[in-house]
TrEMBL record, chain A:
Assigned keywords, A-Z: ATP-binding, Nucleotide-binding, Transport
GO biological process, one term: carbohydrate transport
Lineage: Bacteria, Bacillati, Bacillota, Bacilli, Lactobacillales
Molecular functions (GO terms): ABC-type transporter activity; ATP binding; ATP hydrolysis activity
CDD domains for the chain: ABC_MalK_N
Name listed for the protein in its UniProt record: Sugar ABC transporter ATP-binding protein
TrEMBL record, chain B:
Source organism: Companilactobacillus crustorum JCM 15951
PANTHER family found in the cross-reference section: ABC TRANSPORTER PERMEASE PROTEIN MG189-RELATED, ABC TRANSPORTER PERMEASE PROTEIN MG189-RELATED-RELATED
Boundaries of every ABC transmembrane type-1 domain copy: 67-256
This protein's name: ABC transmembrane type-1 domain-containing protein
Regions crossing the membrane: 7-28, 71-91, 103-122, 134-153, 182-203, 235-256
Length: 367, 270
């Protein structure tokens, strides 16, 4: 077990004027499963590579158990890493691939065999130990890459988009296996992904990044229910949050495209206190907080919109309805019983207690 | 592809195959003929057939000595070329500095220098340091043949993901261990190609050894020249000699060809 601190970490590549990672601060507790998530190019892999020692840190300190590790070589950091493309050694058998690190460190052969056999058993690789990577399926290769990390019994496991090359079904399966593996090993895991579903389902805490900066750190439920800004609200959740540019007038949010919704009293009080009355703000509502069932229409009479369905997707239990509301493309996730066909005129209601409000200039969450 | 096109391609392939095998037919059949038999008909099968050419050629070539010389020079040169060029290419490919790019360009442009333009000063300089022998020749081959080999290795190394190096580095491997235990084994197919190209060139080379080697260190091609005098040409012995001398190269090719067809990063990634 190890305590990890990233203090004001910056990364600027040679020849670049801008920082790829700026002021990254994070304390990781013992045995925590941390997920770095964000769009491509947001700096999450760069940060992971700095932790691994594969990239230099331009500014700031990376500490393990209080010791600054910036200049410590990767092999001395007691870190195991699983790469996006697995990076298996094609000329070695599965056993040799998994035993490579221990053999390099001249570990006792009996102990190496014991550890590889144990890891193979955990990952269901025992029948494949003599095979070469070329004779394995994608999922099996991914397991070998995980196995190679497990046998090292490192203090910190880094996983760089390890599931991105697998098909959807296998990805779901491996997601569960990695989560179970973390529980079993009790080590610190840092997992990088651009897939918010992976982040939400696996993480103890999520670090959401954009443009090289941390946008928010929190548990999956915190990020979902209390996003720090418009970016987080838009990134977490699928389909993404609907945003409307609106003006706060007479206790209602309105825009010149016909949107006119009453703001609940409690929310209005806060917005008033913060001086947003009469000002332009961004209003956000998640697709799942939009309802088309009759009960909801009656329950939220002040938050009703009229939409003409452009596209609809029936997913089984749910239906995704695409339309244009208040001049904005709008998505609603409703119960499949309320499924509608394209061209239908539908009345829907916003569950305003779950609405989000953002400052128009800073994109920071107001409420 | 239609049936007719397949047939046409098959026939063209067959004809090309025959064309390429024809020199072997000439060499092997004529090596069993008497001088009179060769002049009577070059194309016919040996009749009467004689194995005496091989015995005489074996003696005239001082075959064991010249074979040993050829083997020492070829094996040492090729091993050094493989070692030096693979390591140089690895360093140049993985190091993204301007100096590396410049050095690589220098290697590539060295391929364009004609050997004939440097052979006189080269032999003069080697002679000045008393290095006109088989070891001097090995060093010369190393210098001449590294450029193409570095170029070939560099291309293959570019297709090996850097993650392979990084993964091994995190596992605790030193730079040398990464190269020897991870990268070099993945270069096997191109190593075999480099070996074959250089073995054929060095094994058959005549000009450079003729300038460098003392008589006691003559290779097979140099000894072969003894069969071609000013007035007489002993084709029957020369062809028997050629048949014996190409056997090692063919054996190596047959042994090595299974490595050539293997994919370089088969199963390494994705």
């Amino acid at each position: 077990m190890v305590k990890i601190n990233l203090e004001h970490i910056y990364k600027r590549y040679q020849g670049n004027t801008d920082y790829s990672v700026s002021d990254f601060n994070l304390d990781i507790k013992d045995g925590e499963f941390i997920v770095f998530v964000g769009p491509s190019g947001c700096g999450k892999s760069t940060t992971l590579r700095m932790i691994a020692g594969l990239e230099d840190i331009s500014k700031g300190d990376f500490k393990m158990d209080g010791k600054v590790m910036n200049k410590v070589s990767p092999k001395d950091r007691d870190i195991a890493m699983v790469f996006q493309n697995y990076a298996l050694y094609p000329h070695m058998s599965v056993f040799d691939n998994m035993a490579f690190g221990l053999n390099i460190r001249k570990n006792d052969k009996e102990d190496t065999k014991k550890r590889v056999d144990n890891a193979a058993k955990i990952l269901g690789l025992t029948p494949y130990l003599k095979r070469k990577p070329a004779a394995l399926s994608g999922g099996q290769r991914q397991r070998v890459a995980l196995g190679r990390a497990i046998v090292r019994d490192a203090n910190l496991f880094l996983l760089d988009e390890p599931l991105s090359n697998l098909d959807a079904k296998l990805r779901v399966q491996m997601r569960t296996e990695i989560a179970q593996l973390h529980q079993r090993l009790g080590r610190n895991f840092i997992y990088v992904t651009h897939d918010q579903v992976e982040a939400m389902t696996m993480a103890d805490r999520i670090v959401i990044m954009n443009d090289g900066m941390i946008q928010q750190v929190g548990t999956p439920s915190e990020l979902y229910s209390k996003p720090a800004n418009k970016f987080v609200a838009g990134f977490i959740g699928s389909p993404a949050t609907n945003f409307f540019d609106v003006k706060l007038e007479d206790g209602r949010i309105v825009n010149d495209q016909g949107l006119n919704i009453a703001v609940p009293e409690g929310q209005m009080k806060v917005l008033k206190q913060k001086g947003y009355v009469g000002k332009e703000i961004t209003f956000g509502i998640r697709p799942e907080d939009v309802h088309a069932e009759e009960v909801a229409i009656q329950a939220f009479p002040d938050a009703i919109i009229d939409a003409k369905i452009k596209v609809s997707e029936l997913l089984g239990a749910e239906s995704i309805l695409y339309s244009n509301v208040g001049g904005t493309d709008f998505i609603a996730k409703v119960d499949s019983r309320d499924h509608h066909q394209p061209g239908d005129d539908v009345q829907m209601a916003f569950e305003m207690t779950k609405a989000h409000y953002f400052d128009k200039d800073t994109d920071e969450t107001i409420l | 592809m239609g049936k007719t096109s397949k047939k046409v391609i098959g026939i063209v392939g067959l004809l090309l195959g025959i064309l390429w095998l024809f020199p072997f037919y000439l060499i092997v059949t004529n090596s069993f003929k008497t001088p009179k038999g060769i002049f009577a008909s070059v194309l016919s099968l040996p009749h009467p057939s004689t194995g005496a050419n091989y015995v005489n050629s074996f003696k005239a070539l001082d075959f064991i000595t010249s074979l040993t010389n050829s083997l020492i020079i070829t094996i040492c040169s090729v091993l050094l070329i493989i070692l030096a060029s693979s390591m140089a290419a690895y360093a140049l490919q993985r190091n993204h500095s301007k100096l590396s790019s410049g050095l690589l360009m220098l290697f590539i442009s060295a391929m364009l220098i004609p050997f004939q333009s440097v052979m006189i000063p080269l032999t003069a300089n080697f002679g000045a340091v008393h290095f006109l022998n088989m070891w001097g020749l090995v060093i010369m081959y190393l210098g001449f043949d590294c450029s193409l080999s570095v170029f070939l290795y560099q291309g293959t190394l570019a297709s090996i993901p850097i993650a392979m190096d990084e993964s091994a580095e995190l596992e605790g491997a030193s730079r040398w261990q990464i190269f020897t235990k991870v990268i070099f084994p993945m270069l096997s197919p191109i190593t075999v190609t480099v070996a074959i190209l250089n073995i054929i060139a060095i094994w058959n080379d005549y000009l450079l050894p003729s300038l460098v080697l003392p008589q006691a260190q003559y290779t097979i091609p140099l000894q072969m020249f003894n069969f071609f005098g000013e007035y007489t040409k002993q084709w029957h012995l020369a062809l028997a000699g050629i048949t014996i001398s190409i056997i090692p190269v063919i054996l190596f090719y047959l042994f090595a060809q299974k490595w050539i067809i293997k994919g370089v990063t088969d199963g390494a990634v994705k």
